[in-house]
Amino acid sequence: MAKKTINTGSALGPYSSAVVAGEHCYIAGTGGFLPGTSTIVDGGIEAEIRQAMDNLEATLARAGFALADVVSVTCYLRHTEHWPVLNEVYRNYFTKDEPARASLVVAGMPANASFEITCVAWRGKDA
């Protein structure tokens, strides 16, 4: 099985933004970066989460997947008090058959980000 890599131009290190392996797509940590840059969007935590979600959706599309294909998500927040904002924004992207999700609070993230999201998508046939 061949694998395909996707690079969005926002990676802060030697890694791919996404890797497609068969019917799965593995998305690396995706932040609220202005597309193709390592600059976090202005406007606070809500704007940052929205931009990260938009970036996630765009990366999935480049890989040939959609949000509806996402089966597992991990979210990273800098501050616990941002949890309600995350939920408010998140539910606008995953509106039906929400994926499994884990959320963690971490002390620091690259580029002084306050939010990051990663996921696994699957477009295979049901058993």
Automatic annotation (TrEMBL):
InterPro entries given in the database record: RutC-like_sf, YjgF/YER057c/UK114
Protein name: Endoribonuclease L-PSP
Top-rank lineage group of the source organism: Bacteria
Signal sequence, renumbered to the chain: none
Organism: Amycolatopsis saalfeldensis
Example GO molecular function: deaminase activity
GO cellular component: cytosol
